[in-house]
Each structure stands twice: as C-alpha cells, then as structure tokens.
Design goal:
Number of helices: 2
Structural class: alpha+beta
Order of helices and strands: HHEEEEEEEEEEE
Number of strands: 11
Largest sheet: 4 strands, antiparallel
Helix content: 10-25%
Shape: flat
Length: about 160
C-alpha cells in the first residue's frame, strides 16, 4: 500500500497534477514543526540534520515556501528510512497568503538544484532514469516550474 501511494504521488508530480486535487488539504502552520512532530511520534529517537527543511520561494510569488528532505533525518539510528534506490522523499509546501502552508507534492528524488531559467526559479530534479522513460543508469534530469500550487514539467533528459 505504501509503495502504491508513493507511486501515485510520483506520478502526480511527473504529470503536473496538483496533490490537492485528490483530497481536501489542511493548512499546516509550520512544515518544520509538523514534520518533526510526526517523526518524533514514529521514532524513539529522531534526529534532524541541517537541510531537513529548506525555506525558499518555490513558486515565484514572493512568499517563502518550504521543502522537507526525508534523507536528512535519522530514526532510531537509521538514516532516511524511507529512502531507497529511487532516492529520498521530499515534501513541497507552498505558503498561502491567508497564513499557513499547503502540501502540494511529494517526490522521491536523488536531489535537486534550484536555478534561475528565463527569469523564473525552477527545479532540476535528479531522479531514477525510468522517470525519463530510460533504462540506462544515468539519472533523469527533470526541469520543473511551480506555478501557484502545480508542478509543470518543462523538460526531461
């Protein structure tokens, strides 16, 4: 079931479908507190490294958003227990004007760069090659822009 949900979320990211369309999302007051509390409830000892939460404007609206990296925490001595050969889960939160954050996507990635292209900040995700419909071993590089609360794929290679 967990793998099925993860596959659905990855597909939603790849197709640019908003996660919020699948169910009514609740606002989170602070993603860092929300996620750390979650992991502390799941683990006897949860430790968080620098980089667990990154705060930056991911959708170019001038409001600071947040990204959590599940590879940057340790649960009972195991680093990033949800990480696998596809990378580590990252949750993407957009801060809304009314206050609070909305979880808009989860992606299993090796990592990403956040760069400026044609005047807008975009993600260049490094992912398993199958996400670019390839069978070789070189990581897929997917360039994605966030518009509002939707991921829009610009290119894959």
């Amino acid at each position: 079931m967990k793998q099925l949900l993860l596959a659905f979320l990855q597909t939603a990211l790849l197709l640019g479908a908003p996660l919020a369309a699948t169910a009514q999302q609740s606002l989170v007051s602070d993603p860092e507190i929300y996620e750390k509390d979650h992991f502390r409830s799941q683990c006897k000892v949860a430790e968080f490294r620098d980089g667990f939460i990154r705060r930056l404007d991911i959708n170019n609206d001038g409001i600071i958003d947040a990204i959590s990296d599940h590879g940057a925490y340790t649960c009972d001595g195991e680093r990033g227990p949800a990480c696998n050969e596809d990378g580590c889960p990252h949750n993407f939160y957009v801060q809304v004007k009314e206050g609070g954050y909305l979880l808009i996507a989860t992606a299993q990635v090796y990592g990403y760069d956040f760069v400026k292209r044609f005047g807008n900040m975009v993600f260049v995700f490094k992912m398993h090659p199958r996400f670019c419909e390839r069978t070789d071993s070189a990581p897929c590089e997917m360039t994605v822009r966030v518009r509002g609360t939707k991921f829009v794929t610009i290119s894959r290679k």
